[in-house]
């Protein structure tokens, strides 16, 4: 499996490739259904499979005020795409020149001439080209003219709602991390560097790792969450506070995680936070003692949340009792 960062690093195989293309933010279950169809299409035709995606998100270039927060970083997206079994991932730089290409020109000059497309599968809502002038129907019509194969996939539906990156964002902004996980096919994850805080959690008896995450990535609704924390191959259950810590009068929005039973130094390390369940709203307590009692209760409740999506090999080191 290879990841190519730009067309200048990519050489099209002599016999051509089967392609799918999209933003693929989050690489959710709908995307995975599309990628599975791509793999079958490629196998049937004896072609390598290529997933083509963009960085930055197209809306950041054509309409920055409408650009959504991301469900994962571009590097995480490329890693997740590669993990689906496609042979190649190609990340195209989305710039003004690409945004200004007419849809048919993009198909001929980029997909066919540079990428080597001989077959393509896209979702039925796929739009591309200048002013989003191209769609799945255009690809089907061009396939008959230019002689490539084209297939169009309907959306995956969950509880009568299409699985989409925008619907996942909506669930996360409501704090419904379980619904988001069902659409993603895995826990919502935020990865970042552990940075030094003010040591308040340690003084309260519950040391926390303060996460500096990508500013463009969406954080769920403020509140207290049961989470898993992954670092250096270790997975531990934790309780996370996402918000402004009103009892302490902090003000700045923070993601901090208490890894249950862990007392080591994580400063400077990368920690992945997996959101399992939202436990409650953030709230202001009348005293330090009330806050400590509530944190104890949050820790107990975090341990009781089942690890309902993790495979057996990823069960946390601290088990629910």
CATH overall fold name of the largest domain: Rossmann fold
Q: Whole-number radius of gyration?
A: 22 Å
Distance between the termini: 40 Å
Note the quaternary state here.
single chain
The count of helical stretches stands at 10
**Poorly predicted residue ranges:** 312-321
Q: From the helix content, strand content and strand pairing, which structural class follows?
A: alpha/beta
In percent terms, what proportion of residues is strand?
Answer: 25-35%
Q: Main β-sheet: number of strands, strand sense, barrel status?
A: 6 strands, parallel
When the domains are counted, the total is 2
Number of strands: 16
Notable characteristics:
alpha/beta; Rossmann fold; 10 helices; six-stranded antiparallel barrel; elongated; 2 domains; disordered C terminus; 321 residues
Would you write up a description of this structure?
- The protein is α/β, with parallel strands linked by helices and 321 residues long.
- It folds into two domains: 2-155, Rossmann fold; 186-314, Elongation Factor Tu (Ef-tu), domain 3, CATH 2.40.30.30.
- It contains ten helices and 16 strands.
- It has helices at 29-45, 58-62, 74-83, 96-99, 103-115, 136-146, 165-173, 177-184, 200-204, 288-304, and strands at residues 2-5, 17-21, 49-55, 88-93, 117-123, 127-128, 134-135, 149-153, 157-158, 161-162, 188-195, 209-213, 223-231, 234-243, 254-259, 270-280.
- The radius of gyration is 22 Å and the shape is elongated.
């Amino acid at each position: 499996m290879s990841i190519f960062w730009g067309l200048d690093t990519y050489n099209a195989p002599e016999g051509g490739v089967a392609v799918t293309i999209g933003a693929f933010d989050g690489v959710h279950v709908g995307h995975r259904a599309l990628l599975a169809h791509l793999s079958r299409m490629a196998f049937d035709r004896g072609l390598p499979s290529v997933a083509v995606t963009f960085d930055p998100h197209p809306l950041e270039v054509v309409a920055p005020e409408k650009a959504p927060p991301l469900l994962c970083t571009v590097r995480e997206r490329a890693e997740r795409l590669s993990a689906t079994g496609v042979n190649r991932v190609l990340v195209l730089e989305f710039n003004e020149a690409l945004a200004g290409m007419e849809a048919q020109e993009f198909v001929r000059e980029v997909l066919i001439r540079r990428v080597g497309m001989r077959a393509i599968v896209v979702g039925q809502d796929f739009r591309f080209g200048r002013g989003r002038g191209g769609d799945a129907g255009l690809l089907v019509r061009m396939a008959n003219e230019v002689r490539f194969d084209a297939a169009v996939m309907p959306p995956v539906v969950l509880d009568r709602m299409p699985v989409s990156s925008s619907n996942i964002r909506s669930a996360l902004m409501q704090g419904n991390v379980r619904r988001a996980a069902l659409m993603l096919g895995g826990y919502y994850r935020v990865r970042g560097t552990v940075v030094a805080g003010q040591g308040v959690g340690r003084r309260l008896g519950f040391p926390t790792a303060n996460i500096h995450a990508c500013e463009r990535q969406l954080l769920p609704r403020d509140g207290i969450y049961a989470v898993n924390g992954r670092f250096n191959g270790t997975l531990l259950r934790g309780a996370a506070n996402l918000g402004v810590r009103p009892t302490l009068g902090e003000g700045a929005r923070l993601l901090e995680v208490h890894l249950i039973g862990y007392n080591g130094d994580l400063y400077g390390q990368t920690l992945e936070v997996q959101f399992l369940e939202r436990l409650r709203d953030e709230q202001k307590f009348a005293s330090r003692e009330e806050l400590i009692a509530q944190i104890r209760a949050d820790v107990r409740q975090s341990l009781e949340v089942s690890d309902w999506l993790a495979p057996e090999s990823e069960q946390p080191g601290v088990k629910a009792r």
